[in-house]
Design brief:
This protein is an alpha/beta fold and about 400 residues long. The protein has 2 domains: about 70 residues, Roll (Urease, subunit C, domain 1); about 300 residues, Alpha-Beta Barrel (TIM Barrel). Helix 3 crosses helix 4 and helix 6 packs parallel to helix 7. Bound molecules: zinc ion.
Length: about 400
């Protein structure tokens, strides 16, 4: 296909004809030569403010609790400058990897106050022509546990946070925590994005309360949940019933395999579970499932380069997603399915959509994902924002006969 772009939007999509006079009249012509063009990648769940902390850590973290505790300590010395520098490092990596939209969780608590949110708002504005940032006001340390947090969340939303965040495994009273965040989402008319059931304990099922409340608040389609790994430890039949209810409530599920594989399943001394969201079961029951990086080089996830295809590949390898159809699903998860969860408009490869595009050095989807093909060009609303050329030189490669 030939793609025509004008004023940042896709204005034509048609069969490639070698000597089409309209194409030749374009101001700039890029020969893609059969390579894969996709709508820009969507990173639906990432923490910029606590990325790249490895050098500051005094000891390794080996559980969710240790990762939270370790980050809490490091947080005390966060400064605006330091949050900004580490966030920019991730944003630039992400842009180079073809990411055009990113939902970022900003920590909101009495320790950092609104520091992180202020940096995110500044970066959102600064990078608006390169990447669209959505900011989640995220009470990582709990709401009731840290008095003053609810007031800070309200201020964050008044200052321009796009999404209400929450976490089901920090406060003692789950119902109270969820009532606070559902009420805020309703009052400010914002989507809700929750960290949910991040555990190997199958009895941890806050998702059931979330399903109920999603219906009660009429928020079907506007609630996303990240992790949801304890569901993967439930017996199949019980898990399947819950997956059906998640689909009925229109809740989006964000699998975060890099963090979940690293921290999950560690309590098992044999038959190690790998601590993943049950992705295939959720998909099979019609749930909108997507995947995110979550963290970049910190106590929760010591890995990562903000490349969504690394995470897609990780999920493919660990969730048995290797079929020809699976790769289509993996690509939808990082594009159109994620766009649904993030409530993006004008997104996709169709006429009228924003020309947020990524051209991969691959001629089919399998090589695009499996080789995590270089992102030759990345465009945001029709403007080139990054290009990558991978070059390998071989020496002494002649076969001796
Ligand atoms: Zn997270």
């Amino acid at each position: 296909m030939d793609v025509g772009i004008k004023d940042g939007r896709i204005i034509s999509l048609r069969q490639h004809l070698p000597n089409d006079p309209n194409v030749l009249s374009a101001g700039q012509l890029i020969q893609a030569e059969g390579r894969v063009l996709l709508p820009g990648f969507i990173e639906p769940h990432i923490h910029l403010d606590k990325a790249f902390l490895l050098n500051q850590m005094t000891q390794d973290a080996n559980s969710v609790e240790q990762a939270i505790a370790s980050t809490l300590e490091l947080k005390r010395s966060f400064t605006k400058k330091d949050i900004e520098a580490r966030s920019i490092q991730v944003i630039q990596q992400a842009i180079a990897h073809g990411v055009t939209h990113m939902r970022c969780h900003a920590e909101i608590d009495p320790i950092v106050g609104l520091l992180s949110l202020e940096v995110m708002l500044k970066l959102k504005e600064h990078y608006r022509d390169q990447i669209t940032l959505q900011i989640v006001a995220f009470p990582q340390e709990g709401i009731q546990k840290q008095p003053g947090t609810e007031e800070l969340l309200i201020q964050a939303l008044q200052l321009g946070a796009d999404v209400v965040g929450g976490i089901t495994y920090q406060d003692g009273d789950l119902q109270e925590h969820l009532t606070t965040v559902f009420d805020l989402a309703k009052a400010f008319n914002k989507p809700l994005d929750l960290h949910v059931d991040f555990s190997d304990d199958p009895s941890m099922l806050a998702i059931l309360t979330i399903i109920r409340m999603t219906h009660a608040y009429g928020m079907q389609g506007r609630v996303s949940v990240g992790h949801l790994t304890s569901l993967g430890s439930l017996p199949y039949g019980e898990a399947r019933t819950i997956c059906q209810s998640i689909a009925e409530a229109g809740i989006h599920v964000m699998s975060l395999p890099a963090t979940d594989l690293y921290l999950g399943g560690r309590g098992d001394d044999h038959r190690h579970r790998r601590g993943l969201t049950p992705v295939s079961l959720l998909l099979e029951q019609g749930v909108n499932v997507i995947y995110g990086s979550n963290n970049i080089q910190n106590p929760f996830t010591p890995f990562g380069t903000a490349d969504p295809l690394d995470i897609g590949m990780l999920l493919a390898q660990t969730a048995y997603m290797g079929s020809k159809q699976d790769v289509v699903t993996l690509v939808e998860m990082v594009t159109t399915r994620a766009a649904q969860a993030l409530e993006l408009t004008n997104y996709g490869l169709h006429i009228g959509a924003d020309a947020d595009l990524v051209l991969l050095e691959a001629s089919n989807l399998r090589s695009a994902v499996y080789e995590r093909a270089p992102r030759r060009f990345v465009w945001k609303r029709g403007q080139l924002v990054a290009s990558t050329v991978k070059q390998t030189t071989f020496y002494h490669t002649q076969m001796s006969s």
